Amino acid sequence: MTGGTNRQSSSDSSYNTNANKAVQNLEAASVAGTIEEVDGATAQSLANQGYTVVGAQENPSGKGHLNVVTSYPEYDSSLGPMTSDVGGRPGGMRYAEDAFLTKQEVTYYYDPEQDRTVIDDSQVLNTWGY
């Protein structure tokens, strides 16, 4: 999920995509067994343990949306996990209920193989294009 490829010099077009396509890529990776799909409570628990967890929502009639689940001491099932916006206009922390504005399904994904003890440039999603 967090790769390590230099996207600026990569010729792999999968790095140049929109949120809807990214959601489709995450779903395909989950089906292939590369990453795992989890529910909101598990997503919050994993984020609290230091895992990178992505919330993803496809929108067939518009733009999809991606957020990262952030560490937060409590989980509210009516609001979903605490998330943070990523991308061109990153924002503050919001519950998933507020971050994903439409009432379409939000799916959460994480990579159980990620190394939580080392965070370096190769493990960070570069959403600013450099």
Rg, rounded, reads 14 Å
Helical content band: 10-25%
Strand content: 15-25%
Q: What name does the CATH topology carry? A: endopeptidase fold (from Nostoc punctiforme)
Sheet with most strands: strand arrangement: 1-6-2-3-4-5
Describe the structure concisely for a colleague:
This protein has helices spanning 19-32, 40-48, 96-99; strands at 36-38, 53-57, 65-69, 82-85, 93-95, 107-110. The chain has 130 residues and is of the alpha+beta class. The chain has a single domain, classed as endopeptidase domain like (from Nostoc punctiforme) (endopeptidase fold (from Nostoc punctiforme), Alpha-Beta Complex), CATH 3.90.1720.
State the main characteristics.
130 residues; disordered N terminus; alpha+beta; 21% helix; six-stranded antiparallel sheet; globular; 3 helices; endopeptidase fold (from Nostoc punctiforme)
